[in-house]
Amino acid sequence: MDNILIIGAAGQIGSELTLELRNIYGHNHVFATDIKDAPSDVRESGPFQLLDVMDDKHLIHFIIRNRITQIYHLAAVLSGNAEKLPTAAWQINMNSLMNILEVARLVEDVEKVFWPSSIAVFGPTTPRKMAPQITVMEPVTVYGISKLAGERWCEYYYRRYGVDVRSLRYPGLISYKTEAGGGTTDWAVEIYYDAVRQGSYRCFLKEDTKLPMMFMADAIRATVNLMELQRSEISLHSAYNINGISLSPAEVAEDIKRHIPGFAISYYPDFRQDIADSWPENVDDTMARNRDHWGPQYSLKEITDTMITELTRKLA
Ligand code: SER
User: Fold this and answer.
1) What phi and psi values does residue 296 have, to the nearest 5 degrees?
2) Annotated active-site positions, please?
3) What is the 28 CA–ligand 1 centroid distance (Å)?
4) Contact call for residues 134 and 151 (beta carbons, < 8 A)
5) Does the pLDDT value for residue 79 go beyond 90?
């Protein structure tokens, strides 16, 4: 019987992944945790508890007491916020991962760990188009450096101790349930909120800045598929590239006009423009596609239709 621990269950990914995993593994077998309160459906559909992943003693007790077999560690300081407090962000992102890897090494019941990596592992010297799985990686952000170092630690724990860590390099994730916070790809969520709320958006990136994006439902499916594979089917214990759809603010704005003809967008690039310019436009995810026939399902039109419909309902 699997018992699953989610760290960061109140966040953008966690608030959706928790519900999906509860459907698969049974509601009482998915232990949602965060350092802040979670949305009511996360709190009410199964166990929820405040837990700080930085507190390694409480963490290990929690894992032993609840006979946890799988850990999803989703807590992190995102790229924009990390630039404001670089050393604090580094400590949080790295120490939390190290705590998880150590627990997975020490507690025999823990069979698998999921930890998200990001397109932020790439940098300005990486090919901008179809960034390969294995390529030059010179990230220029604290967040990117922490994700790249994290990937290397994941692979190290696999090689050295046999810890089965699995990871995906998520693109920017677009979702309506819980807003991201402090990321460079957040514009692709904010634009829909502001379109529905006020019919206009002030964008912090230039109009033609294309970045890799993905609808949350696709990201959840990719994650669950990866975690359901047999250990022998995983050839990479760093992180797999996964590609969704490459989008610029102008393209999304144009598509929103199908629903809100008067929608207006203005551009005031801030410090996040440099971060965006250091990331690729899309990535080559052949390895993930060959592994489990991964492929995104949501087009821009489907993303926009879903976001506008759901946010209109939510913000009404
Ligand atoms: N969405 C993240 C960010 O913008 C990238 O992984 O920080």
Assistant:
1) -70, 150
2) 143
3) 31
4) no
5) yes
Give the pLDDT mean for 229-254.
96
Instruction: Give me the sheet containing 172-174, strands edge to edge.
Output: 172-174, 211-215, 245-247
For the cut 90, the answer to whether the pLDDT of residue 114 exceeds it is yes
Q: What is the residue extent of each domain of the chain?
A: 4-171+216-241, 173-213+244-281+297-314
Is 3.10.20.30 the CATH classification of the domain at 4-171+216-241? no
> What's the topology of domain 173-213+244-281+297-314?
UDP-galactose 4-epimerase; domain 1 (3.90.25)
**Model confidence at 180: pLDDT above 90:** no
Q: Where are the alpha helices (DSSP H) in 162-279?
A: 187-198, 216-228, 249-256, 272-277
The residue contributing the CA closest to ligand 1 atom 1 is: 172
Residues with CB under 6 A from ligand 1: 78-79, 118, 120, 143, 170, 172, 183-185
pLDDT at 223 over 90: yes
φ, ψ of residue 155 to 5 degrees: the values are -65, -35
Compute the average pLDDT of residues 8-30. 98
